[in-house]
Records
---
Amino acid sequence: MVLNFGAVLSVNAGEAKPMTVQGETITTGFDKRPIDGAVQVEASGLVTDDHVDDADDLDRALLFYQRSYYDSWNNELGRELPHGTFGENLTIEGPEDDKVMLGDELCIGEVRLRVTQPRIPCRKMAVRLGHEGFPSRYLRSRRVGFFCSVMEPGLVRSGDKIELVHRVEDGISMADLARVLHLEPPNVESLNRVLACFALPPALRTKAEKLLRRAQGDDGAWSGDRALLVTARRREAVEVVSLDLADPEGTRLPDFEAGQFLTLSLDVPGADKPLVRTYTLVGRSEDGHGYRIAVKREPAPADSPDVPAGIASGHLHAAVGVGSQLLARAPRGRFAVKPGHRPVVLISAGIGITPMLAMLEHLAAQKRKSGRPVHFVHGARSSHELAFGAHVRRLVASSELLHSHLLFSRPAPEDVLGRHFDEAGRVTPAVLERILPSLEADYYVCGPAEFMADIVTGLIHRGVPLNQVHYEFFGAARSLLGEEKTEDGPVATGADGRPIVVTFARSGIAVPWRKNTFSLLALAEQAGLRPEASCRTGLCGACVSRIDDGEVEYAIDPMYGVQPGQVTVCCARPSTSVMIDL
Ligand SMILES: Cc1cc2nc3c(=O)[nH]c(=O)nc-3n(C[C@H](O)[C@H](O)[C@H](O)COP(=O)(O)OP(=O)(O)OC[C@H]3O[C@@H](n4cnc5c(N)ncnc54)[C@H](O)[C@@H]3O)c2cc1C
Ligand code: FES
């Protein structure tokens, strides 16, 4: 069988160059330009291309991108993109992704290739296109292109014909593969279809198997809400209680990563719908089978004492005790200790101690294997407000690799320096510089927003690379590096050159979308609305709203799958004028 597949319009290659991606400088050959004449193709790809990105992955030797997709992007973006913009090796005239099948074999002259996988964009594309949300938009556009491995080497040049020489019967298209593995919530039937494909490369097979386990509930996680029984309740500090949660049948609850949280749906009297709130897992319950969370009663803000105090935390303090049942979604979250060799510094204040405690436990359990020194630095007002102080001391005493430094900003009369705390004052970058043997470390930060801004900017100004500083907000997320000037930023325009306007339909408010605003949720809050939200990172589903008109793209890809016509406003940005049901 030999069928016409298309033609090579340009052969593009890139030199390895430094590129700054999310604060980290990497070397990449992403920036590709068309080159003249015939170019040799070997198993690793074009010989003229600097293979720094996928050097070892022969299944991704050559990236193809279709001309018809360039036409669509040029139209949408209102500019003429040169071939090579998307980092592809070959810009081709040829079928779209729904007509390109996994395992298809193509010939370009003597070069024989096999189609291996759809292209999934990375952060480098955001830098190349000058738009942070572009990779997500690219994926959702379903104009992704595809990779080939090289079966027979040879020469390619622009103008060459491409022939389809072999097609696998009942195969799966690149469009379907991208949809099943990257766009839709895991689905057993679709994943089984993917796994049945003989030509599936090992990396994709591993991914599909993992998704299948999740879809079948075999990864330990559960989908939707699950009733958990409160088996113990303890006062950990003056405004903090911990709750032990167990499966009512006594089944051991699945493992979680230190730093992840549970999402609770709370029926609070007087609220017209369940309140969704997230609480970090501080560890396992006493018997090792359940979970423990710790909840701080949230007071009204100091500058607005007349507004009501926190509803969900107030309810958990006042009305939830041993024997109560709570509805919880499975542990989720990306704030977890990354593997590595650098020392780890865990920095927290107030209730921000919860993920740090889980991480300290995890690192303490790993200490011999990892050999990483760990510094736990925490600030509280006094021993009355300090939760889990004794637990931290016990853990730290278990290994020479673990260290702690506790600061009290207003020690109580009975607090003894050297016994109950190590220093009077607050945690600041200057304190860190003084107490840490070196600033070369991986940092994890959690606490009130002002505290986080101070610590994170302080570390960056002292030369700690951004990619070594990780943080999590318990409330409204904000930029910590001062680049998010929202209220006075320039108004963004759509492809038609007109200002992008966001209409919050239920509230009857229409506001311009300004560049650098983080998300539709942030815009709604600036407009004085208080939409439901909790994790603010696309994980819990609390902020999912109806979108009645327009299109969005995602700054962070939400892990919480939404139905058509819905949007996860905490991490979405409008790409056209939109109407949201808020
Ligand atoms: C990833 C993550 C992990 C978390 N982990 C923990 C944890 O381990 N422990 C923990 O205690 N919390 C944690 N939180 C925070 C928790 O999810 C809740 O946000 C917190 O308990 C407050 O919820 P609430 O319903 O009590 O307060 P809300 O009712 O949501 O109120 C929040 C604040 O807004 C104020 N407020 C109310 N009305 C107004 C108004 N009209 N105008 C202005 N302000 C107003 C309230 O007084 C209060 O100060 C976490 C959050 C996230 C995102
Ligand atoms: S607030 Fe959790 S998904 Fe948006």
---
Amino acid sequence: MSTDAIKVTGARENNLKNVSVQIPKRSLTVFTGVSGSGKSSLVFDTIAAEAQRQLNETFTAFVRNFLPDHGRPDMDAIEDISAAVVIDQKRLGGNPRSTVGTITDINPLLRLLFSRAGDPVGLPPSAFSFNDPQGMCPTCEGLGRVVELDLDVFVDRTKSLNQGALLHPDFSTDSWYWLSYVKSGFFDNDKPLADFTEQEWSLLLRGEMPQKLRLVWQGNTLNVKYEGLAAKFTRLYIKKEDMSERNRQVFQRFVCSAPCPDCAGTRLAPAARASRIAGHNIADLTSMEAERLGVVLAGLVIRSPDGHTPTG
Ligand SMILES: Nc1ncnc2c1ncn2[C@@H]1O[C@H](COP(=O)(O)OP(=O)(O)OP(=O)(O)O)[C@@H](O)[C@H]1O
Ligand SMILES: [Mg+2]
């Protein structure tokens, strides 16, 4: 019997009326027809759904708990299908979470592969997804980049604090925030920031103080905790959920985006990054150019638990 075609017999999903077709492999086949004629019902709901179901059946009961189970499509038989990669009709672009892997169905397959064969074992497929709370890097929340204070824009190093070295409007001379630095006692307020020592920079950006500062501002006396510029900026602007449009525009001028220092841009939590197959973690594989990925995957020999090497 030839295996050069996918043979579908008696497909009855949705409006399909016992459709039997043979679809040649290794060539491009196009399904055309008026809207509602059943193209998606045949291609996605029957062929791709059955391919996915058969693939899912090869996993252990534990792993299958994490996979969707849509049941068997309504049809008599399907022969000679292999794993399907679905590229959906969804629009591309516009989402910072999209990659070639998320747009095609390759990522779910790689997650299954790692959940089954990754060393150390024991993670469910969702732990390999940067869009899942279990799998995402906690620092950048799975985006791979973090937003940071852009110090070169925030300060004018040629100026002292008294001359208005802090350029963000909320930190202007005589403002409440400005006062907390000038009255901290940490700095010579007439010294240009370019002449600050390492230690002074460190105090300005990340300094802490055990006791509270006593500040008089617009007739009121207030006790406040000293907070370094980096921490204050993060708390006031970066971690802030809603912001007025004006504040957002100001904010955009003072930040830059940098690769996440914890996941190095891979977007994944430590456990997912630690799991390896043939020396590669899942981020190595998803960042590979497709042809090289094919070579690496083809070179893997996966043994079933009873020790023999399945073919196919
Ligand atoms: N989940 C569903 N439940 C019930 N009926 C459905 C479902 N999906 C599709 N149908 C119906 O099945 C028929 C075929 O729909 P299908 O989406 O397969 O058509 P199509 O040829 O892909 O159309 P289009 O060109 O608009 O994508 C339509 O009458 C549709 O309303
Ligand atoms: Mg369709």
---
Amino acid sequence: MAELGQEYDVIGPTELEEIKEALANKDLATAVREIQDYFEQQDRVELNIAVTGESGSGKSTFVNAFRGLEDEDEGSAPTGVVETTMEPKAYLHPEHVNVKVWDLPGIGTPNFKADKYLEQVGFQRYDFFVIVSSERFRECHVQLANEINKMKKKFYFIRSKIDCSISAESRKKSFNKEKTLNDIRDDCIRGLESIGVTSPDVFLISCFDLGSYDFSPLQETMNKSLPQFKKHLLMLALPNITLQINKKKKKELEADIWRVALISTAVAAVPDSDLSICVDILILVAVLIKYYRAFNLDEQSLQNLAERSGKPLKELKAVLKSPLHEEISQHVVKKLLSRKDNKTYIKYWLSKIPILGLLTAGPWSFVVVYRMLKTCLNELAEDAQNVIMAAFQSPV
Ligand SMILES: Nc1nc2c(ncn2[C@@H]2O[C@H](COP(=O)(O)OP(=O)(O)OP(=O)(O)O)[C@@H](O)[C@H]2O)c(=O)[nH]1
Ligand SMILES: [Mg+2]
């Protein structure tokens, strides 16, 4: 489709199948109702992450970093050098309130009993556990891991404060960062194996530098074991700190574009008087705000990133290009929709999905919305990518 010019105007085979399936053998009203149900389910789903480990291992710091917060930001979990967390406490994600990160009390006190502990913290409510250790893994971690296994829940081991370990080792003349990281990882794995954990995965993390070390593999592993809607929610809520996460967020959001285009053009019965197309603008405003939040492009997130990376906010903002940074309103969305479109696109779409010709709003409306969302998503993802590079200087 060389005449279409841009790669994102072409529908991929998976997407094409999904659209055909959604519209096959049913009337449009039923297809739209099913897509609306899909979005309602997506909005309702909750993710509960339990963070546990010995006192002082960095649990609360992880709870904050995972939500893109610094320890002293509003809404952050208290951290410190003396024991601070005594009761399980849920911390909501600032932009995705359905993601709750639970800061659990410390384990490993002399009378620690893993089964009692899990009862006390209400283990049923969690989708998975993160077990944090700032040193070697000990008997209490394994007791806990075994008990979590018995309860048919998932857990991930984190070796925290890696920045401290690296900085201590770097004083040696023979220091080699990669080797040090491998040694720490191997030591943790051996330690866990020696106390009965088979093929353990260990993730080396510094909460003061979450984008480095093993945060990417950790999020990938977490994602794999979650059902579809929870996976989507986790992906959007992750702090947008690596180029890899940025890319995955884009892919996650991209997958729903045809659904949004279809319902926004199917539920609007009357053409918008300012536009020649039939479209529900409010749906589009909500979706663009969702993109914005997922890429952490709002003022507060940029401010947090500036503090975390030590770069001036102005420098991060200087790389933003999308017109959506001014404001996301009905007016702005109308302006984006009124861009002139080439008839070739409509022909292309109809050749792929002839049923679009039967839409009340017509294939025109669908295609205009689809293209507008793709363009905005591409622009915002690119801005977010440039922000990451500006914050951390080089590609992560
Ligand atoms: N250098 C470094 N320090 C860390 C890291 N994570 C946590 N800390 C520090 O370790 C100390 C303890 O961290 P917390 O997050 O309060 O530990 P906790 O596990 O919640 O402790 P309790 O609530 O008492 O069980 C704090 O001074 C943190 O700043 C890290 O990744 N790197
Ligand atoms: Mg704590």
